Amino acid sequence: MNPRAIARFHAALSNEVRMRIVALVCGRNEMCVCELVDELGLSQANVSRHVGILRDAGILQDRKIGTWVLLRVDEALLREQFSALLDEIHERHRASAHMDAERRLTERCGRVLCA
Q1: From residue 29, how far is each of 3, 10, 108 by CA, in Å?
Q2: Hey, where are the domains in the chain?
Q3: Local structure of 30: helix, strand or coil
Q4: Residue 80: per-residue pLDDT
Q5: Which residue, 93, 57, 48, 109, is CA-closest to 78?
Q6: CATH architecture of 3-73
Q7: Residue 59 burial by CB count (10 A; 0-12/13-18/19+): exposed, middle or buried?
Q8: pTM recorded for the entire structure
Q9: Is the distance from CB of 18 to CB of 54 less than 8 angstroms?
Q10: Quick one: average pLDDT of 66-95?
């Protein structure tokens, strides 16, 4: 996934309403916008705007049945993205811990490695 898609993914989840939408749809496997409007107590236009952002980020997928559009969460994408985020956090922590250890040793011994 490219950096723009990663940023779009995380930005889409940075809103409380969109997080509620994801939780509701996950809990029921599939929902239509009209059900979300009823659950959230928001206007159809507002819910549709949030759904569009989640769709653009790849988080929500849809399928059409007649005039109904049922939404579902791409759970594989969520797992992949959160796993990648955890990997990045762990890698940055390892690098930071290594640099911190080198700094402390340099301060204590005057060089990177103590003899």
Answers
A1: 29, 21, 57
A2: 3-73, 75-115
A3: coil
A4: 81
A5: 57
A6: Orthogonal Bundle (1.10)
A7: buried
A8: 0.70
A9: yes
A10: 79
